[in-house]
Amino acid sequence: xERVIDIIxxxxxxxxxxxxxxxxxxxxxxxxxxxxxxxxxYEYETQIDDKKKILQLFQxxxxxxNNDEQLLVSDENHICIKEAKEIDPLIEIGDELxxxxxxxxxxxxxAATLHKELEYHIQRLLEQQIFxxxxxxxSKCVHGIVTGVDAEESTxxxxxxxxxxLPRKNRIKGEKFKVGNVVxxxxxxxxxxxxxxxxxxxxxxxxxxxxxxxxxxxxxxxDGTVIxxxxxxxxxxxxxxxxxxxxxxxxxxxxxxxxRGVRINAIGKELHGENIDCIEYSPVAEIFVARALAPALISxxxxxxxxxxxxxxxxxKSKAIGxxxxxIRLASMLTGYEIELIExxxxxxxxxxxxxxPNALKALFKD
Length: 367
Hints:
Blueprint: H1 4-15, H2 19-38, E1 43-49, E2 54-64, H3 69-74, E3 78-80, H4 81-87, E4 96-101, H5 107-135, E5 141-149, E6 155-159, E7 162-166, E8 182-192, E9 198-203, H6 207-217, H7 219-222, E10 226-234, E11 238-245, H8 252-257, H9 262-270, E12 275-280, H10 285-292, E13 298-304, E14 307-312, H11 317-321, H12 326-335, E15 338-343, E16 353-356
Parallel strand pairs: 2-3, 11-12, 14-15
Antiparallel strand pairs: 1-2, 2-4, 5-6, 5-8, 6-7, 8-9, 10-11, 13-14, 15-16
């Protein structure tokens, strides 16, 4: 076990692990090996001497009073104070004595056991490292190669060192992938499944995927000059995006859309032909709701708790609602308000009105 530090450093560098984590793994592995070789009833401690670059194994015994016969008879992990004083005159009750166990006496069986234990704990460290890495990348865009599609139409994609899964529910309607396809998606969540394996779930339907694509496509969003305040999607059909600029000379909508729509159209193509409406965000709720209902022209908006009452000309109502109600649904998702439309010339407040509750859509369109 000479120059064990060199071995630890070699393992840490090869696997890309922290040196202290590898040290802890080796100490834990040796302690567990000792329990298997000498017996579970004994207490052990492993130390690494950095100066001598050696690994040391100790058996620990607790010092108890002379009259504590029950512990002294039933448990070899204890020693009476009288006997302990003969070994170390300065020792007190409650202290621990340590006996070094020569590692050369462990034998081949112990060496094989130690190898298995160390391999197991190093693997756990690698898995934890991967888990933390991808957990920190949630909502980030990744791309990988399709390696398979199962009977439930879940698509398996290799992203760097991990095989990720794109469930059918997280795939845009009408999309189909084959082995060998390169697919972009966003990391939706990372978790440990029942079999103790790391599972990285991907999504192409989340609004976060739209935001991640915009960050890749639009330099002003990537450098923080333009901020995405809100995003709402009906995947594969239509989306609405609210952006704001922190620089007075930068047009948030213009930068996002690009010259002749080149930037937004490239993203729409990636999203299976999804149409993307881009509006300028406003912290004033009434203005934000009015803009969210574009292309309809809104005469007035009143906010009442979680409801936004929008007044508009009858000719604008069909635009505000959109085909199959998609425009008002997206506007409601984007703003977070239940939106009620009232025509300007209605004789009664209850006539000619349409309302959409954003809470009713949450179950259908989750991030």
